Amino acid sequence: MGPDRSELVVRVRERRQRLGLTQQQLAERAGISRQALVAIEVGKLTPSVAVALRLARALDCAVEELFSLPEPARLAATLAASGAPVPPVPFRVRLARIGEELVAWPAVGESGEAEGIAHEQRGERLLVEPLVDPAALERGLVLAGCDPALATLAAYLRRWYRDLRVIWVPVGSRAALRALARGEAHIAGTHLWDPASGDFNIPAVRRELAGRGVAVVTLSRWVEGLGLAPANPKGIRGLGDLARPDVTLVNREPGSGSRTVLDVLLAREGLEPAQLRGYQRELRSHRAVAEAVASGLADAGPLVSPVARAHGLAFLPLLEERYDLVVPAELLDWPPVRDLLELLASRPVRRELAASGYAVEESGTLIARLS
User: Fold this and answer.
1) Rg of the chain taking only CA atoms, in angstroms
2) CA distances in angstroms from 10 to 25, 65, 274, 283, listed in the order given
3) Which has the closest alpha carbon to 190: 252, 255, 108, 287?
4) Cα gap 97→308, rounded to integer Å
5) pLDDT over 90 for what percent of the chain?
6) Which helix (H) or strand (E) holds 321?
7) Which domains does the chain have, with CATH numbers?
8) What is the pLDDT of residue 111?
9) Which residue intervals of 19-168 are DSSP H helices?
10) Are 371 and 207 in contact (CB under 8 A)?
11) Can you say how many angstroms the Cα of residue 125 is from the centroid of all Cα atoms in its chain?
12) Is the entire prediction scored with pTM above 0.85?
């Protein structure tokens, strides 16, 4: 016999009574005392594995029908407003505590991980069954942004903090900034070009996070352009080729950095969206665009050089960009955030990013403090 485990759900009495057995009869069949059976039925005594098996055999059922753990308590969480379609319940979610709120992002399969299952939705509120110890949800860091390098940083942080859950949410730049503004992420990654000033990210951060104290730190530089089918069989040499009837485009969603660059440069070329076959086909990540082009579903799509390289695509460069991380001022001294920013300047991370096609000379550089 084992120690008392009050969390165990016991259904021995219900099964015994359904079969019309007395406590003495069942105790004799199972080879235990009546006093032990009484203690098991009222939850004061947890049976050993052998006793549980004998009770199940005596009652002609599986052990799981007699003993089980209770369903975990469901937690209330706020559904992050990612802009992506929300699947019908039940669906898997990434979960983390951000400030006073438990925030849930639909798990999109980038990492295969999830902290919970949403069973009920009422507007922006979810009832979630946790898949991890609820205490672990207090130790989560949410990185929102489209750069796959965020997954690399997350992997390094997990090695340093075994009990820290690092969640990468792959959303576009403007969506990441707005998630930060709503308190749905700890850090936002962005590569938003401002054509009027020629600057990157600072104008957008001032607009989206007006009045919020933040630090803007460079992750890397990369080249924005068009991902093309391997070996470029359509011979695409410039944006004007996208208007050819034999060329099919796939696009990013409005508010993403890639879409911003494409729209501005198309306008400068005098090209209208209606002239481009496939312009309205919008995908929500660099990876999705790369996979569409690599599989032949499209001939071209706005993409950044490291992702095109990782998928073996030809590439037409259009603009060099700076990708920054935006960090709320109040989180700068939080150890996971402090270590994340230090990682940007570390040799192992720089070597890994450089091998993937990033320019890392400015990685870890503080660009601005805004208040």
Assistant:
1) 28
2) 19, 9, 66, 50
3) 255
4) 34
5) 85
6) strand 314-328
7) 9-68 (1.10.260.40), 71-132 (no CATH), 139-371 (3.40.190.290)
8) 57
9) 23-30, 34-41, 49-58, 63-66, 149-160
10) no
11) 18
12) no
